């Protein structure tokens, strides 16, 4: 873990080749995880409401399909509005992704994930710059009204694969291996945290410990506190998966620890 505090807003956005390394590493890790699933593992409930392990895999298959066939996205949006009218559109869209793969036999679901993500990765790598710069209106991600496709495919897909792999490991009671690029993936989260509207300005030094750990400065001005929490655990907190993080005040004002514990952002 780096002990030199990095200003989060100054972190460099991962470029296209680096993003592919992150995504490929996650797909490879999922390969090992899916091979290890057995019997009732697929039906274990997860922290993602309404979803078991198989549903998460189905949602991820749906994400890959949306990359391969971009026209599937508006079609799913239309169905999502009909089937889940009370949900934010993005949440409803993801529910439809999982619904469409529900009931698939585990062996086929495993093979489908491998096949779809191999093709999706090739598609992302070949997408022309003009396509990648297209802005997409995102309903259901407060503070992120429009995102360009390059950012969605390079940054958010790897992040989602990574976080959902932790969801599955949590559900199964297995140790989560955050992977060789965990620190880089988390650094991109920290960049988004401060660069977007999510951090409310309290200047702190945040020490993230454990896998993927690093030390970051958030907010402008002299830090009022130095606080510490587990890196992977804090990603669960930021994404709304864990509302009771263990945040240790190392020095300074307790308001700094409270700011860290209460912050949330879309993943």
TrEMBL record:
Taxonomic path: Bacteria, Bacillati, Actinomycetota, Actinomycetes, Propionibacteriales
Domain Mycothiol-dependent maleylpyruvate isomerase metal-binding residues, every copy: 25-168
Name of this chain's protein: Mycothiol-dependent maleylpyruvate isomerase metal-binding domain-containing protein
NCBIfam families: maleylpyruvate isomerase family mycothiol-dependent enzyme
Organism per entry: Kribbella alba
């Amino acid at each position: 873990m780096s002990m030199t505090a990095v200003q989060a807003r100054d972190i460099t956005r991962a470029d296209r080749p680096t993003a592919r390394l992150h995504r490929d590493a996650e797909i490879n890790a999922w390969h090992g995880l899916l091979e290890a699933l057995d019997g009732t593992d697929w039906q274990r409930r997860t922290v993602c409401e309404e979803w078991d392990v198989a549903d998460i895999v189905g949602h991820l298959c749906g994400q890959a399909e949306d990359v391969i066939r971009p026209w599937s996205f508006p079609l799913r949006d239309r169905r999502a509005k009909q089937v889940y009218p009370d949900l934010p559109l993005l949440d409803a869209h993801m529910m439809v992704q999982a619904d469409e793969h529900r009931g698939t036999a585990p062996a086929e679901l495993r093979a489908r994930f491998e096949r779809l993500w191999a093709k999706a990765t090739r598609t992302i790598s070949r997408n022309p710059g003009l396509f990648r710069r297209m802005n997409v209106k995102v309903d259901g991600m407060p503070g992120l009204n429009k995102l360009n496709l390059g950012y969605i495919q390079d940054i958010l897909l790897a992040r989602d694969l990574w976080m959902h792999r932790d969801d599955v490991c949590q559900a199964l009671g297995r140790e989560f291996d955050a992977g060789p690029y965990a620190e880089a993936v988390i650094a991109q989260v920290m960049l988004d945290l401060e660069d977007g509207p999510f951090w409310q300005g309290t200047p702190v030094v945040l020490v993230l410990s454990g896998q993927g750990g690093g030390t970051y400065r958030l907010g402008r001005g002299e830090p009022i506190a130095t606080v510490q929490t587990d890196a992977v655990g804090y990603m669960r907190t930021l994404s709304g998966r864990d509302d009771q993080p263990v945040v240790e005040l190392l020095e300074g004002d307790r308001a700094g620890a409270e700011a860290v514990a209460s912050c949330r952002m879309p993943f």
